[in-house]
Queue: 3 jobs
Job 1
Amino acid sequence: MARKLPKVDVVVVGVGWGGGIIASELTKQGLNVVGLERGKERKTEDYFMVHDELRYALRYEMMQDLSKETITFRSKTNVRALPMRSYGSFLLGTGLGGSGVHWNGQTFRFLPYDFEIRSKTIERYGEKKIPDGMTIQDWGITYDELEPYFDRFEQMAGIAGEENPLGGKRSKPYPVPPMKTTPALRMFGEATKKLKLNPFMMPSANLSEAYTNPDGVSRAACQYCGFCERFGCEYGAKADPVVTVIPIAKKSGKFEIRTHSHVRRILHSGNKATGVMYTDVTTGEEIEQPADIVVLTSYVFNNSRLLLLSKLGRPYDPNTGKGVIGKNYAYQVIRGGAVGFFDDREFNVFAGAGALGMSIDDFNGDNFDHSDLNFIHGANIAISQTGQRPIANNKVPAGTPSWGKEFKAASIKYYTRVLSVGAQGASMPFRHHFLDLDPTYKDVFGDPLIRITYDFEEQDRQLAQYCADKCGEIIKAMGATDKIEINRKLGPYDITPYQSTHNTGGVIMGASTETSAVNHYLQMWDAENVFVVGASAFAHNSGYNPTGTMGALSYRAAEGILKYSKSGGGLLV
Amino acid sequence: MLEQHDRKEQPVSRRSFLKNSGLVLGGLVVGGVAGSLLGKQQAPQQPGETPAPTADFNQALMYFSPEQFKVVDAACERIYPEDELGPGAKALGAAYFIDHQLAGEWGFNARDYMQGPFYPGEVTQGYQGRLKRREIFDIGIQEMNNYSNSLHNARFYELTPEQQDTVLKAFETDEVKLTTISASAFFAMLRATTLEGVYADPLYGGNKNMDGWRMKKFPGNQMAYTQIIEQDEFAKMEPLSLRDHQHG
């Protein structure tokens, strides 16, 4: 029998961006919150030795220990799903702050088109534009409704940026000016202007100057040291939950964080949750934490997995298209891009910041005419200077051997002479892309792993090709030599090469109980005191990094939880 | 300097050996052979003199047998050879780096999901074998010697550089057919770890003296680039390591 603890107002499962934002907002209003985090405590001082490419970037120092828990993957239902035994396609976070600690900090807002994608696509092109099996749907919220929450996330994190000429309307400018520009960025800016496109500086969570946020948290400016993604920031210049929202929640005296606490079940009775059951991984003890409200903020995979393991909500069935938990799993189309070799010029590629970049949205969302194209949506196209580290960056022109004398000479020569323009392609959901529990493989506790059924579709291949050509035009206009590489071909989805940790869906939001799992406050239709927060709520994935939109939805959910708590029950409208 | 370090590390010092064997009488050193064995006391270092190089204690084996080490050392050097640009993998200590990595959690796949059941999967599902990285290296190294023997009747590290390249190429392209592991996957691992050994922080035993970084113009562990981030000119900097940070 699990040891039962006294009841609290709210229990939060996972303390990353979602959990941190929820905890800070609820404790400000006097609620008592317990945050259960399966990983360890984290603080800025931990990153004294952080400039270590091998340890952090290649041995995945900060990521989930896959020996204890992983995911399984198959391309389609008639293939046997097998475990992801080591890291590749995406990297799962763990520990205080979650993936919010080792992200790059690229903080976009999804486009107005995204939130009403189905209606707007039909309105402009007719229903036939949506291919068979593509399950896009409106999100049950509009960009305008979500705008104030985007702003709150940006003010809290201190996002550096300038207005996106093709983005949604902003109520306020970014709290700090854009980051510094580099020669590569300036070349991109000039080239895209020459091509009559609309460049803007990438919105960045790496502070461009010292900043004090509305919560009173002061942080120092980014030093462009070039160690962001997969690393923690020793300066606290990169916004992460540990240096922003978590200290605010702690200061209230109403937030208790329990690390090494792995939540395994949501306990429920009738149509309400009663709390959660977790294992203290340091002792193995099973503990029950009763709560009035349960908030899941444990990333896409564990949000779906916990609901399925707890038999809460209606599991999605790809055969009937009915059910909602596990539905509309989507990813990102990263392959379309172009690489330029600059024989006559060297760049300080080792310097940079995770969100130091410039981009265009001319080929993103529905900002361009798709009438004669065999796909919908598009990609944000960008150059970024995140800091090229030497083990992972050995790009050589096509035809060069991959080892030996010639390789050595070319990889050294081009290390400082390669620039790439990349497209971050949107990912549309399909009826046969979903998450469920694996029938065979288990985690360290003996619980089933989550299973991904996913592959790229013709939509993705067309999108990648189109965007790759656009990237190629830009890199040419930037003056790259004839050794240009355009990556047009998108193969089958492969779990081994890193692509992006932008997994989405599984517990999607929407306007109807039939087709979505949570409402526009991320409150579960089937369990009114359960809120499921994260990119799990995205009904599809846009051509951007997800954190900005995920952060906005977290603030929105916090408001919903407060409303729910005050009203004493019922579904929010 | 080297001499003295060696002596300290030996379980039985030369002095005690000599004492026990009765060659030292009453504290006086008998001349001839025995005297020279004891060595001369080093004169204390004078100010301004360059200190003698200290021993690299890291260059000893944690996992490989000497035979395995020779094979890997030779292979790394072909993957990343010494040339007019600078040292190759051998001088940079890449094979020591690989040895040390295999001795630890990475070699044991300690943070990988290694539970069964094991099934051969599709290529897109990634590695599905039950062998750990250290076991793959054991087999791969043995097979490199076997293949070298079958072609030239010699072990891999005894071949000419051109012959070694032929062997590596045969592994890279799966021309060598192995039953327990994939030759090309082993080669890919060998290539990847060679590059790690050349460019990882010297703390791990490779990239000796940061010379891998120097060749590539990577400045290592710098705390800030704010002063150069905007400039058009390329910034050439002397690299810094994590050791500099720890002891700086």
Note: The first strand of chain B starts at residue 24 and ends at 25.
Job 2
Amino acid sequence: MMTASRLHPQLVLLMELQDLRSQHRELGEEEAVREVEETHFQIDLEKARIELAEKIEELEAALDSSARRRYEQIRPHRDRVVVPVINGVCYGCFVSIPTATVGDEGAREELRGCENCGRFIYILS
Amino acid sequence: MELRELFTVDAVKLELEADSKDDILKELIELLGLDEKSDTILFKTLKRRENLGSTGIGKGIAIPHCRSLVVNKLCLAYGRKPGGTDFSSIDDAPVHHFFLIVAPPLEVSNQYLPILGKIAQFAKDPEIPGRLESISEPEEFLDLLKEKSTR
């Protein structure tokens, strides 16, 4: 679980954005998800995807210029723009992150990226 | 993996105090024992899922669920609201029993959907709402999950 409550506000926004993008992708591409949501929860899948896409656009517009520039650089190449770092490993590219990047107190308060894959990272214990 | 193995006593609350849909979601999230920031992010994600359509599946049962970056493994919680509360359920009836399911975006074991399906099946057993009402200790909830999974 995440161990610190201090997170960079732009990282919080990026994490919310990533969660929405996961929902949007699953409702569009994952047949099993579509079936469960339709069968048990009677979701209108297409309407739901439109609503999610609108919310995604809204959150993207709320990113500051620096975060948005990086987000737009990463997004065309990577499914996930934000990934956790667990036990010092980036869960986007599975390469070890230098201790200096994740080990200090500022790691959760600054907007940091994986030096290997470029994705935004957050520390999860 | 059986449902019983995925719940802990700490993640079972038999007397939810909240009265509104939002506050019920927050109280359920608290059962997962995350930090405050994670709680906030998770609440927003669950709320956005609810806005797409209620996870109240009828007969007094709701299964709020989502994937979220704030967890690193599948997390489940159960809450019971004596008297029930409005959750915009499919049948418009008050919801008494809440099963929260949160999964990370990537899971090696890919348990999220099978577990979501199992909970939905468990909840639809006509005997379950009555059995859940009669529970007086969290351990009895876990026993009920075990009993039903062995049938």
Note: The CA atoms of residues 82 and 120 of chain A lie 5 Å apart.
Job 3
Amino acid sequence: MIVGKQKPFDEIWDMVKGFKKVLVYGCNTCVAICHAGGSKEAELLASMLRMRAKQEGLDLLIDSAGIERHCEPEFFEPLDEKVKTYDLILSTACGVGVNFLADRLAGAIPVYPGINTSFYGAVPEAGFFVELCGGCGNCILHLTGGICPIVRCSKSLMNGPCGGTDKGKCEVSSETDCAWFLIVERMKKLGTLEKLFEVQPPRDWSTATHGGPRRISLEHIRAYEAEEEKKATLTGEGK
Amino acid sequence: MADVAEAAEQILVSTVEAPHDTPADWTPNVLAFACHYCAFAAADLAGVMRLSYSPSVKIIRLPCTGKLDHIHILSAFEKGVDGVFAAG
Amino acid sequence: MFAARRIEYVKTLLKKVGIDPARLEMYNLSAAMGPRWAEMCDEFVDRIRNLGPSPIWLASRKQSEKGVTEQ
């Protein structure tokens, strides 16, 4: 899932204080799981902002709301009218949500981020999140025993550990495991260590962000949707 | 002992809030969230025993303090309550 | 105790908005502790009396006074 962390309160306050009517808009998917931007966090943040506004003597109306997802248009629809009555949306969704809502509002209302979107991660234990995937668009986990060197190695090394590997820990931080140490240990257990000796062709990085914004288009689904739409307009004309 | 008294005094002087004068007509307004089965029963008992305690405390009964949410506390402060405690 | 954990967390939030975390506390007591309840209430109210009115109360007071003078 996408992991984020709420921005420092003072930073949020600086963003918000110049406006009159603000909606703190939470997203109940990934960022709710990491206690950063769900409906609940949006509610708390709105309450804190109201208290701050009161103390500073500012006449600021701050509400909160939340929907299940900020990354699909359907979920926005029930609150569309309400959203349009504000002059700032403070979104506590991830960066995807902020972009998507800002596009949807098309410049009518500004959308500001309430959280810092950090990484794609997992939750090994409650309240603890680790980055496990870099979203590079060209997965090699089958070659590295299910451990991603691109994001779990501090240097994103592709060919093995660097000289800084120290008893299974990384030289960048002793709290970080050396990804290549993990990979070798894991592949020994899997009995596939010899796979590491296979020479791989140079990596194609164009699938990562280096190739510009990425898209995935599922033609079979889009064709079906287009067909349905066509049918709907035809029957509409028939009437 | 002097150290203890000094430390206690320091705790009472707020470092977070800006210094302010207390208006003469101000009385503390305190909200208590009490669990129905322990603290609320204790408060009941205090009543039965005819013990007098500060009238500033207003009690809200919860089925359990586990029901107490962050937002309940924040809303109380937002409304201008001077202090909140939970008992259970 | 979930409530105790929540209270600790809300204390950090209060600090961020300029409210003294000492205005919030968690107490544990049993149903048989009537006298302790009375004692505890007095203790806490004393603490609040020392801290004075909450910044929010002062702010809304200031606001309403301003409203009156403007009228």
Note: The mean pLDDT of chain C is 89.
